[in-house]
Amino acid sequence: MKYMLMRKADADTENAVLPTEEILQAMADYNDRMTQAGVFVDGNGLRPTREGCRIQFRNGEPTVAHGPFEQTSEQLAGYSVLEVDSLEDAIAWAKQWPPEDADGNVTLELRRYFTLEDFKPSPALEQHRSLGQLPREMNVHVAFAGHCREAMEFYAEVTGGNLEAVITYGETPAAEDVAPDMHDRVIHASLNLRGRRLMGADMSGDCYQPPQGAQVHLEYDDPEQAEQVFRRLSDGGAVIMPFEKTFWAHRFGMAKDRFGVQWMISSQIEHCQ
After folding, report:
1. What are the strands of the beta sheet with 108-112, ordered from one edge?
2. So what's the architecture of 139-209 in CATH?
């Protein structure tokens, strides 16, 4: 079940008072706990209503009303999207909202998302369903020749992602079917990057083939951060294309890391319409 956890506005949020470092840290820790628990989908804070507007329709004609809006406590200051098993689970996470925010004086609201299963069958529903036939996730899986753990720990350090799983052959029923020297090798590793996963495993003998014809693409808003990641990934490997300005991106580069995995790093891509 997917829920939106809404943080209602107050005088400070409507006056664009930025959170203190203490509050920022507390919220980061809170979101990190939910991310590691696999329930955090997304979340953002909203700027004051004076910088927004409402579009009201009367008889099909739109009227734009610019903020600020009254009834501050009924406005929205931010939200988090949670994916949990029940309303009770969502409430349990909401109760852990950091007390540093507004000295513990905030109002939260939980609302569950509608799903297509809530509606009766109809042509319109089928059109909506056809729009949602894409896979729920698309992840990347990389094979290694015995260096999976080292590589995935390195990628976690470079990207700041959450290394949520590292499982060896010896920890699974597959241990009976592989040679003893494979028992400490990795059968499954997963690096969570904001809900997208880079997965990997060690392959034995002839089963391993160096990655060819595919690259892992990381896009960053900050060019300096993107360049730092590019340099670290190419260190000990090889630069395929220097990290520099192109006609399609503010900065873009390609590199092969020391484990043989190829990367594309970009910043501020100019998406074509």
Report:
1. 40-45, 76-83, 2-8, 108-112
2. Roll (3.10)
